[in-house]
Amino acid sequence: MSVETYERFVLNGRRPTTPAEVERQVVFHADRVSVDYGANRALDNVSFDIYRNYATALIGPSGCGKSTFLRCLNRMNDSIDGFKLGGNLTYHGHDLYGAQANRVEVRRRIGMVFQKPNPFPKSIFANVAWAPRNLGMKADLDARVERALRSAALWDEVKDRLGSSALGLSGGQQQRLCIARAIAIEPDVLLLDEPASALDPIATASIEALIHDLKLRYTIVIVTHNMQQAIRVADRTAFFSLDQNRAGTLIEYDSTDKLFSRPADQRTHDYITGQFG
Questions:
Q1: pLDDT, tens digit, for every residue of 155-171?
Q2: For the chain, give me the number of helices (H) and strands (E)?
Q3: Which of 54, 95, 170, 219 has a CA 20 to 30 Å removed from the CA of 195?
Q4: pLDDT average, residue stretch 18-45
Q5: CA distances (Å), 88 to each of 34, 105, 206, 238, in order?
Q6: Beta bridge partners of residue 88, listed in sequence order
Q7: Which pLDDT belongs to residue 13?
Q8: What is the edge-to-edge ordering of all strands in the sheet holding 219-223?
Q9: Residue 11: which pLDDT band, with cuts at 50, 70 and 90?
Q10: How many other CB atoms are there within 10 angstroms of residue 232's CB atom?
Q11: For residue 217, with 0-12 CB atoms within 10 Å meaning exposed, 13-18 middle and 19 or more buried, which class applies?
């Protein structure tokens, strides 16, 4: 099935249920990616592909490089002193760290939502409109804000108080607002760094339901410490751990069902059964 046919499936509200039903497009290709912060190697020899319209979970113990890798995908590590990326990391075949890569454009196409909700001390409307305004995307701004809030399943809750401070929203609403803010500029990819770790179970369930809806339109990569959450939301899962030199590395990458039910590596088995981590 072509990408165009897949889009028709999405627009008609029917999502293909098996990988064979659609030709999956590679969005990110990591080839022997390493990350150094000065003399400290944080990530070593990571190679795998991330596919279009899948939710891909990154799991593993603390300090194993999950968030470091996630932030490489939209060049959020660039401002860290001593940061250096080795290997090759491409986005739709384009070198993310090549001389021709434009960081502003990279971050427009690859949005990010952080662990703790971080709304600006502005109105709900101004939060969502902030990035489009700064990027010159001012045409039909009201409609753009409404679309983003609807996509984040927040419109019905805030439509009558768009001028109110975003800081007055609940934690779960604030995180959905941050998702709306990220998708207001219509990115291709949404990166989520433990988006529900600071939320209560009800708000967490809302974020997980939202991920299932959003992956029909976006490619999603999510870092989570919650393995049950990975099982609930991810199509594919990458398990990271520490190598013998204490650098983070990729141990196993597969469909979520297979990785959790029939892991190929003993280290994966030991982690998901609680024997370490």
A1: 999 999 999 999 999 99
A2: 11, 10
A3: 95
A4: 86
A5: 9, 19, 36, 18
A6: 31
A7: 40
A8: 94-95, 83-91, 26-37, 40-51, 248-255, 236-242, 55-59, 219-223, 189-193, 110-113
A9: very low
A10: 18
A11: middle
| Count of C-beta atoms within a 10 Å radius of residue 84 | 13
HSE (side-chain half, CA atoms, 13 Å) at 222: 34
Q: Which domains does the chain have, with CATH numbers?
A: 3-272 (3.40.50.300)
Tokens encoding 180? 């709306």
For 65-91, the pLDDT digits (tens) are 999 999 999 999 999 999 999 999 999
Q: What integer pLDDT is reported at residue 70 of this predicted model? A: 98
Strand 83-91 vs strand 26-37: parallel, antiparallel, or unpaired?
Answer: antiparallel
Question: Is the pLDDT confidence value at 37 over 80?
Answer: yes
Cα(180)–Cα(274) distance, integer angstroms: 35
The pLDDT of residue 22 = 52
Paired tokens of 269: 């088995």
Per DSSP, what are the bridge partners of residue 110?
A: 189
Q: What is the phi-psi region of residue 212: left when phi exceeds 0, alpha when psi lies from -120 to 50, beta otherwise? A: alpha
Helices (H), the chain: 3-11, 66-72, 103-109, 124-134, 141-151, 155-158, 171-183, 201-214, 227-233, 256-261, 266-272
228: number of Cβ within 10 Å:
9
Share of the chain above pLDDT 90, in %: 87
> Residues with Cβ < 8 Å from 117, sequence gap 6 or more?
171, 174, 175, 177, 178, 198
Q: Which residues pair with 185 in a beta bridge?
A: none
Continuous segment of H or E residues that includes residue 223: strand 219-223
